[in-house]
Description:
By secondary structure, the protein is of the alpha/beta class.
Amino acid sequence: MRTMVVIPTFNERENLGPLVEEVLAHEGYRVLVVDDDSPDGTGDLADEIATRSRGRVEVLHRKTNRGLGRAYVDGFRKALVSDVELICQMDGDLSHDPRYLPSLVNATSKYDVVIGSRYLSGISVVNWPLRRLILSTTANRYIRAVTGLAVRDCTSGFRCWTREALARIPLERVVSDGYAFMVEMVFEAARCGCRIGEVPIVFVERRKGTSKVSSGVLIESLLMPWRLRLRGALAFGREHRPPPRAQRPPSSRRHEREG
């Protein structure tokens, strides 16, 4: 099936070339690089790669309203107006191995959204300090408890969407960034009735460059599950609100009294 892989980038010049090469090794796959005006020239390199790719690589340059969540939203919108059938998303730092892409794609025969999960078969993470591993696993348990999601790895950014499923997500309402964006998207998918599945992957901490995780991203991730729970409760209330009682015209009631 025609598959587009959306890769947001910010200062990933060292990683982009090898990553795109590995993705394009899969026949029929295309790449959309969404670059947030990287100071290290990642966007320029992406343009060079696109020129040599014979139409298999596109680049979307973003100058304003930057951030991971908005980059994905803009990338998804661009993918949805193309002719692709499946839209994958993955990090640009080589922590998501492109060799797992066929597993995600194949699983869309049963699911609308497929997540590359680090926690489906135990814990499959390489080169993380114990503190970060505890933080991630605890965060996923916390998210499941607050939102009611059954997904094991709610914060994984390695995913594959069917075109139909992604088109059902109200992207204009998605406001979060970082890990919170991943949670918000899977929550909206569940609310839309999408079938969500997971396949096991091994996550390897970035080989080059520095992590983009900040304290602000972590705080947003703590607050987002409660916002989503409130959003779901408000939507449930609107959907199950009893219809207003029908009222007869005043003239009808007057005639009854006169009679």
